[in-house]
Amino acid sequence: MPDRKSFVAAIAAAPEDDLPRLVFADYLDEHGEPDRAEFIRAQVRRAAVWCGPDDGTLARTAATAFDSHGIGWCHTFLTALGLDLTGYKLKRSALWREAGTSALTVDVFDRQYRLSHLVPHLAFRRGFVEELAVTVANAPKVCSFAEAFRHEPVHTLEAHFGVRTDSKSWLRLSEPALRRITRLKATFHPDASGLTHTVMAPLFDDPHLAGVRQFALSSDPTGDEGVRIAPEAVAAFTRSWLAYRLDALELTAIDDDGVRALGVNTRLRVSRLALNGAYTRAALPPLERSGIADTVRSLTLFFGELADVAALARSRWPRLTELHLNCHIDDGGTFPPGGLEALAGAEFTPYLEVLDLSGNSLSDDDVYLDGLRELAAALDPHRLVLLDLQLTGLDAVPDFLTNRFGDRVLV
Question: Containing H/E element for 341?
Fold first, then answer.
C-alpha cells in the first residue's frame, strides 16, 4: 500500500494533473483525515473554475479547513526546513488567483508577530504547498530541501536576498533536491544596493537549478519604489546558464539601462516576457534588435505614456500572440487617448489571440469607444480567444464588440 511520500512523489511528477491529488484525497478520507481531503478537493475545484463564476464557497471551504488544521499540515514540512515552530504561528494572509489557479498564502510569524527570518511564507495551490519563500542569508545548516520536498510537491521557490546576503549565502542552500524547481523568483531588499552580479552569480549559475524554466527577478515590492535592478545584475543573468534554459522571464523594477542590458546578449530566447519598471520607449528598439523579440509569444509591459504605446505599436514582434498591457499614468491611471488607435495599427495586432487591457482606466465616452472600434476592426475574430477589459471602467460590453467576438470579451 502506498504511503504519503509515494503520493507526494506522484503529484510532484505530474504537477498539472489533478488525478493524483484527488486519489490522495480519497486515501485521506479512508485514513481518518477528512478535513485535509476536503481542503484538497475544494482547492482543485476552485482552480478548475478560476475564470468562471464562483460565489466564494470553495474558497471559504478551503480557508475554514486550513484555519482549523493548517499548522498540523505544515509542521513536518517546516521542521524539515529547519524552522523550530515553538512559539511560531501561521496566518493565512491572502487568497488570490494567478495563472489559471487559485492560491492560499500563509505567512509564518514569531512570538512578536514578525515574519520568520527563514520562511516568510508559503502558498497552497490545488491542495498542496507548491510555492516556498526563503530568506537566503538566514538559512540554518539543518535546512533540508530534500527532506521537506518529500512532504510537499514544491515547484516554485522564491529566494529573498537581504542586506546581509553575501556571495556565499546561496551556496549554503544549494543541493540536488532543487532540481525539482521549475519556477524561480529572486527578490532583493531595497536597502541592499550592493546586491549586484557578484552576489547573484551563484544563483544564476547553480547547476542544481537546471529544471528552472520560469524566472522572475525583482526588488522587494514593499520597499522603496525608486530602487531598480542593477544593469550589471541583468547582464550577468543573460550570460548565465540559467538564462539559456528559460521559457519565461519576468523583470520588475527595471529601468532603461536594465532593458538595454537584457538586449545585449542575443542568445537569450524566451517565449514569455514581462517587464515592469521605469523604462521608456527608448529602451524598446535595442531589445527588439537583439533577437529576443523573434521568440516572444506572450508579452507583458507596463507603460506610462502614449508615446510608449505608440513605440510598441511600431515595433516588430513576429511571433506575438498574447499581449498584456498596463499603463501607469501619473494623472490618475487613464489609458492614454490615442493608445487604442496606435495598437490597432500595429503589425502584430491581427495575429493576437489574447489582448489583456484589464486594469487600465477606459470609459464609455466617444474617445475610447471610437478607439475600441478601430482596435476591434484590426483584431481577427477567427484568431482572438480573449479580449480582457475588466476593471477598465466600462459598464458593459459594447454591442460592436459582442457582434464581432461574442462572449470572448470580458468586462
Answer: helix 339-344
Within a 10 A sphere around the Cβ of 317, how many other Cβ atoms? 21
What is the rounded distance in angstroms from the CA atom of residue 381 to the CA atom of residue 368? Answer: 20
What pTM was estimated for this model as a whole? 0.87
Q: What is the pLDDT of residues 46-68, one digit of tens each?
A: 887 654 445 567 778 888 888 88
Cα-based angle 124, 125, 127 (whole degrees, multiple of 5):
80
Q: Are 144 and 81 in contact (CB under 8 A)?
A: yes
CA-closest candidate to residue 99, choices 350, 304, 353, 356 = 356
Nearest C-alpha neighbor of 301 from the set 281, 318, 319, 285? 281
pLDDT tens for residues 285-344? 777 788 888 999 999 988 766 667 888 888 889 999 999 988 765 444 567 778 899 999
Q: Which three cell numbers, joined as nine digits, stand for 135?
A: 530568506
* SS3 call for 277: strand
Task: Give rounded-to-5 percent helix, strand, coil for the chain.
Answer: 40, 20, 40
What is the 3-state secondary structure of 177-204?
HHHHCCEEEEEECCCCCCCCHHHHHHHH
Helices (H), ranges, 142-265? 145-148, 197-204, 231-238, 241-244, 256-264
Do residues 344 and 372 touch, judged by C-beta distance below 8 A?
no
For 242-300, how does the pLDDT look when each residue is reduced to its tens digit (9 = 90+)?
998 899 999 988 888 888 888 887 678 899 999 987 777 777 777 778 888 899 999 99
Alpha-carbon span 78 to 178, nearest angstrom: 16
Q: What is the DSSP letter of 315?
A: S
Dist. CA 138–CA 156, nearest whole Å: 19
Residues 106, 128: contact at Cβ < 8 Å? no
